[in-house]
Amino acid sequence: MLMLLPLNKKYSVRIKLFLLTTALLAVLWYVFVPKPDITQSTTYSTAFYDSSGKLLRLNLATDDRYRLWTPIEKIPLSVQQATLLYEDQYFYQHIGIDFIALTKAFYTSYIKRSRRVGASTITMQVARLRFGMNTHVVLGKIEQIFRALQIERHYNKKQILEAYFNLAPYGSNIEGIGAASLIYFKKPAFELNLPESLLLSLVPQNPSKRNPIKQSAKAILLDARQTLFSRWLEDHPSDKNWSATMQLPISVHSSSELPFEAPHFINNLQIEFPHLKPAEYKTTIDLSLQKLLERHGKSYIKRREREGITNTSAILLNYETMEIVAELGSVDFFNNTISGQVNGTRAKRSPGSTLKPFIYALAIDEGLIHPLSLVKDAPKRFGGYTPENYDQQFLGPISATDSLVLSRNVPAVNLMYRLKKVGLYDLLVAADIKKLQPKEFYGLALALGGNEVTMLELVKLYAVLANLGMYQNEIILQQEPERDLKNNTKKRLLSPEAAYLTLQMLSKNNAVDEISFQQQSRKTYPVYWKTGTSFAFRDAWSVGIVGPYVLATWVGNFSGEGHPSFIGRQAAAPLFFEIIRSLESYGLIKDDIKRGGLNIEKVDICSTTGDLPNVHCPKTQKGLFIPGKSPIKISDVHREIFIDKASGSRACRFDESTTTKAIYEFWPSDLIRLFKQAGIVKRQPPAYLASCAINDTSTLGSAPTITSPSNLISYTVRASKLTQESLPFTATTDTDSSALYWFVNNSFVGKVERDTAFFWQPKIGVFEVKVVDNLGRSSSTTLRVKLVQ
User: Fold this and answer.
1) Rounded Cα–Cα distance for residues 144 and 131 (Å)
2) How far is CA 636 from CA 426, 467, 658, 771, in A?
3) pLDDT tens digit sequence for 95-147
4) What is the DSSP string of 598-633?
5) Which one of 109, 140, 279, 486 has the lowest number of neighbouring Cβ atoms within 10 Å?
């Protein structure tokens, strides 16, 4: 025995040294252990809400779990207190480990071996969830303890509790209180009531056995909740009024019932913001308006499917805020037959005539027209381009407003041709229309929809009119973390006056499919709208402004296949007005566009001519124009002439005894010709008395206006064809002219009847070309002819 004492002493020293070293290492580990990431090492779901907080979609995290990050401030105290009461009563007192509970658990599990007890604190559960440890074995449990100490070393209790509520399993593939609340109760966590809070606090202990959607788990949960509620009342006796509710059967929803609203909008949002961090986002969508668009779209297609109309898209933009409040990409997202997952609001399509209002707005801005100006709807050739109207007819001289409302092609192309300062192409570039070809690619066909735009780009253009000339990008998220703020600044594309006058022109476009009482109702709110039909009937459009909204509807096929039914006014406009009437019935159309502070005046306009009335104009109407810009002149069409009482001919001077006065319309000869083509007969003034001298007639009326040749052009002829070339001389004349006499350098070269071209064989040089009508009125121009080889 004496020989053993030194040995025992030796081992005793070693043991003490080992324990001291272990303790020292433990202290050093605790002091210098690095801070672990307990929340962001995993991935989370993204939730999208409408503008009022209704859930639109909850995406899975990358590991196919529903896990929505929820800050502790949005987790109600009832959930926190119930969870601690059930899972870890001494959470705020221990250092991450409950040694008493752990000792009891060890004794029960490994000494007594009666049943396995975990004794894990909230901190230990966070460690297990974060690091994925197997805590059913001793080494796993030891690691869990050390990890819990590590977490407590670097995080406060509030942060640890927050981590637990975002990582805890709540059944199936649902983790975290935020996702569990949204899925099971269709509400955010901060709205959970006491029965719901107690129920969810029970699930993480055994998420498989206590999965709320399992029928077998509901009885277990009901009993467990009742037991927990009894314990709860010990500290919260005032909550006894929940007793009856606690007895009710458990009713929850499953993840299969999650909403999938505004699918095209949400899909596009995720494309537009590809690096959007997983979180909760409030969009600009108004779910009630979204449902309205979907309901009308489905109903409309169902009614007209037999006509070949099988798909539609629509978008509703609040131009005051530039927020997209509803978006219908297709009538059925899940219908593969119509390629339903294609988003028609973001697809490039031909706009047809829907861009015409901007040609008129630019023409107003440049001082070429005002709303009541006369424009010519007549055949016209622009180089190699000869536009035609949809009905292949011509209406002759009509007002600019009627030309726009009736969507006449030739006047629109002619106005676009005359634009010199800012053209339609320039406007489209300034409005950020994407994927435009070079300007030369389109030519004048741009006026009739020769380019392509998306529905969103189109409504943003109409928002320019509604916002009186100001352009701004759309908004789809109420918080836009990735959008460069400079890209959303306002920029002026049109003057406020031009935008406003264009709107007034569009308001004259009558609604379709209205019955009498609807017409009376709609008089209280104007609709500024336009239709469009693309080439080969591929796209039917209706777009316009009403109340605070810009609305667009489209009918067509995503395949690009045309159909005779795809006509804007017949296919897209009825749906357009159905939606407007619903908006009106809900009281959403209240305000109109304000014109305060605009440099616009209302004056009397001669109804016939579109100019200021002279004393002989028989009828006037109120018209708007921009002082200093609009082409306003006093009309000279209506003139007083003297009629010889005896012969009925026109006298050259007034004699009270032999003449009487009469009012006639004196139109230029080209307009007289257009009136005839349109079937409008104008009363012609009688010819002068034979006794009237040329000196008398040459001072009355208007001189001819030479339309060809132009002094702005240098004409060229080929040397090899000099003798074969001919140059047309044409002029418009006053109504009373009947013949034209042409002179080159004061030498008479020929006579023709009015409205007839004279062809002159050109020579090289600079010439003065003069025309004189049969009444002695004349005008002249300069002609330049060059020789080319």
Assistant:
1) 9
2) 36, 38, 26, 22
3) 888 777 666 655 565 565 555 555 789 999 999 999 888 877 778 888 888 88
4) ---EEEEEETTTSSB--TT-S-EEEEEE-TTTS---
5) 486
